[in-house]
Automatic annotation (TrEMBL):
UniProt GO MF annotations: methyltransferase activity
Domain DUF559: 11-116
Single GO BP term: methylation
Taxonomic lineage: Bacteria, Candidatus Giovannoniibacteriota
Keyword Transferase: yes
Name of the protein: DNA-cytosine methyltransferase
Keywords attached to this entry: Methyltransferase, Transferase
Lineage top rank: taxon: Bacteria
Organism: Candidatus Giovannonibacteria bacterium RIFCSPHIGHO2_02_43_13
Length: 118
């Protein structure tokens, strides 16, 4: 099987994204980094295939994607749908949250993530 995880070609881009997190990414990472989901480890800016995921937990094969205003245009919606189809085809579940959900209702977001990690 072809190696599809954390492709070295995308290493610099992953590093750049980790250093330039959005406010929503910083908030969620503070929660995910504490292993409060049954001691399941999440990684940020993890690549699978040609896609870089905002957050990923290999143990439960769960990707978490945060969407802001750039995800509204129809071209971006098509890209997101293709990406989700690819990940689902690799047995990876995808949860998507709007940035404002993270900032304004983190408790509800955490509850949904806990449910998805069981």
């Amino acid at each position: 099987m072809k190696h599809i995880y954390n492709n070295k070609i995308l290493k610099d881009r992953r590093k750049e994204l980790r250093h330039n997190q959005t406010k929503a990414e910083r908030i969620l990472w503070r929660c995910l980094n504490r292993r409060q989901f049954g001691n399941k480890r999440f990684f940020r800016q993890y690549s699978i295939g040609g896609y870089i995921l905002d957050f990923y937990c290999p143990k439960v094969r769960l990707a978490i994607e945060l969407d802001g205003g750039s995800h509204i245009p129809s071209e971006q919606k098509l890209y997101d749908a293709e990406r989700t189809k690819y990940l689902n085809g690799n047995n990876i579940k995808v949860l998507r949250f709007w940035n404002n959900e993270i900032v304004n209702d983190i408790d509800n977001v955490i509850a949904k993530i806990i449910k998805a990690t069981k």
